Amino acid sequence: MTQLVLASSSPRRKDLLNQVNIPFETRKQHVDESNMTCRSPRAYVQALAEKKGRSVPFSVDDEVIMSADTIVSFEGNILGKPANRREAFEMLSMLSGNVHQVYTGVMIRSVEQETVFVEKTTVEFWPLSKDEINDYLDSEEPFDKAGGYGIQSKGSIFVKEIRGDYYNIVGLPLSRVVRSLRAYGVYPDLAQPEQKVTGN
């Protein structure tokens, strides 16, 4: 049976694969993101997904390795994970009352083939007051999320409208991923209860 390896430590990506009952194991990737030079958000996230995917070697020939990276872009500027409270406040202040884009790059590879794609979702925020932003920062939720917010949890109250795949904002364009994995012999088992992740 084909074994899917998720080259990511993101708990949100693990949850999404478990949601559609795809068995997988995780394997940590080690990538230096400081030397990325792509200016376009789409090119950047694609290049980073590929770099992460190629950093994880195959253990056996029938493995399928999947890597992904998600970024937020506002007016062409890439917003990663905020390093501190000040950065998180600045990011959310920029997004307040405005439209931004979320890009996720995905790479799927086996010893025989590769698939790479980028999914974009457009998000509009309600205008946010300083008190709203500060209350959210007190939750400490923003600090491990691109753009400084999590749509799947408390940050959901900021979102006025989305255009595109909701799950792409969470961290993985799930339906496109599932369809892409079919070419590699990896299928969700929708008839069975939710699986538990294996591996580290």
TrEMBL record:
<dbReference type="InterPro" id="IPR029001">
    <property type="entry name" value="ITPase-like_fam"/>
</dbReference>
<feature type="site" description="Important for substrate specificity">
    <location>
        <position position="152"/>
    </location>
</feature>
<comment type="similarity">
    <text>Belongs to the Maf family. YhdE subfamily.</text>
</comment>
<dbReference type="Pfam" id="PF02545">
    <property type="entry name" value="Maf"/>
</dbReference>
<dbReference type="GO" id="GO:0016787">
    <property type="term" value="F:hydrolase activity"/>
</dbReference>
<keyword id="KW-0546">Nucleotide metabolism</keyword>
<comment type="function">
    <text>Nucleoside triphosphate pyrophosphatase that hydrolyzes dTTP and UTP. May have a dual role in cell division arrest and in preventing the incorporation of modified nucleotides into cellular nucleic acids.</text>
</comment>
<feature type="site" description="Important for substrate specificity">
    <location>
        <position position="70"/>
    </location>
</feature>
<keyword id="KW-0963">Cytoplasm</keyword>
<protein>
    <recommendedName>
        <fullName>dTTP/UTP pyrophosphatase</fullName>
        <ecNumber>3.6.1.9</ecNumber>
    </recommendedName>
</protein>
<keyword id="KW-0378">Hydrolase</keyword>
<dbReference type="InterPro" id="IPR003697">
    <property type="entry name" value="Maf-like"/>
</dbReference>
<feature type="site" description="Important for substrate specificity">
    <location>
        <position position="12"/>
    </location>
</feature>
<feature type="active site" description="Proton acceptor">
    <location>
        <position position="69"/>
    </location>
</feature>
